[in-house]
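User: My advisor asked me to double-check a structure prediction for NADP-dependent glutamate dehydrogenase before group meeting. I don't want to rely on an old file, so could you generate it fresh from this sequence?
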Amino acid sequence: MSNLPHEPEFQQAYKELASTLENSSLFEKHPEYKKALKVAAVPERIINFRVVWEDDKGEVQVNRGFRVQYNSALGPYKGGLRFHPTVNLSILKFLGFEQIFKNALTGLSMGGGKGGADFDPKGKSDNEIRRFCVAFMRELNKHIGADTDVPAGDIGVGGREVGYMFGCYRAEKNKWEGVLTGKGGSWGGSLIRPEATGYGLVYYVQHMIQYASGGKESFAGKRVAISGSGNVAQYAALKVIELGGTVISLSDSKGAIVATGEKGFSPEHIDTIADLKLKRKSLTEISNTAELKSDFKYIDGARPWLHCGKVDVALPSATQNEVSQEEAEGLIKAGAKFIAEGSNMGCTQEAIDVFEAHRRENKGSAIWYAPGKAANAGGVAVSGLEMAQNSARLKWTSEEVDEKLKGIMKNCFENCLDTAKEYVVPAEGEFPSLVAGANIAGFSKVAAAMHDQGDWW
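Assistant: Sure, here is a fresh prediction for NADP-dependent glutamate dehydrogenase from the sequence you gave:
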């Protein structure tokens, strides 16, 4: 009997990567990489600690804090902190494992890690959140640093939380260094960082559309279904609208809002939703307002995929496993030609199998799937650019950062495409497998660095 714990999210992420590598020619050309996979699957270090803090009633509360420092072969550990009651080691190991290869695909010098706590920020006052963040960082500061581990935000951790944690780190260490990314713009943060994941997702899909159409098409005129309503979904929606597409859905954990006619969300709608989410409220708060009621419908307890009518592009941007096999089949029936994950592991393995089978069977008319480790790499890419600016004590303009982001996403797409063509040769007229390309390209880079540093032989 195995002595390993039951970690379903991590095991899903590992099997998805391993099966891709095994079904390619990578291990034929590099049989030694099988050993690298075994080594890379085990985190270099897992830190588990208690967080004791005081609520507004003066009562002591305790939560569990984590940091999974997964792989540092390419640079300091890099990955977000998540504050959510569902946080556990399986979820953080899956996120950290994915982060290794995502960071490798950016081309920047970053290893992979992830962390957080089973703390729920919803319903907490600013003072309670500040006290929790300070208590959390008083322990975490012992294990991180600008050249060791550079956390960022994630679900439940935005600019406010990063600010509180950075202030605590600075006080504990008596030094100012670029140890957290997603900082405030006036004290070390990078412009375009809040927008980066959503913008980068759209830039990546733009390359998919251009490649598939031979340069004849873009987002213009496309109906785009998006899930989620946080930073990733908001900024992806705004960029789609800017490029001429029509955003037809957004969602949260309570339900989905879907356009009922040809008109989709406007930038003003997105701004209203952003303000709502900043106050940690759900979409139900505005679902019946005059502003939305005439052109949209609210579907309680549902994800948007089976309720949008015709779909050209689908961008799951909420959380893991948010597209099931049934929903994947529904998106294909709805006419979707492109699906890319703004969330991490947004599609179940069964959904990915549906997309990949359709890609192989239908050649140029198939749906084309891009995994999160490539498509949503824009966020961590700009975190890497924030680290570079902090190290050089520089601040780039938003135009400079956006141009660098565009270049990173272009290189990431081309790397995935070329690697897929080399190791999983597509049939004539078939789109290359971007999931295979992303997995192989990211893994190969990390494995080679680990070998050169003596991590495996």
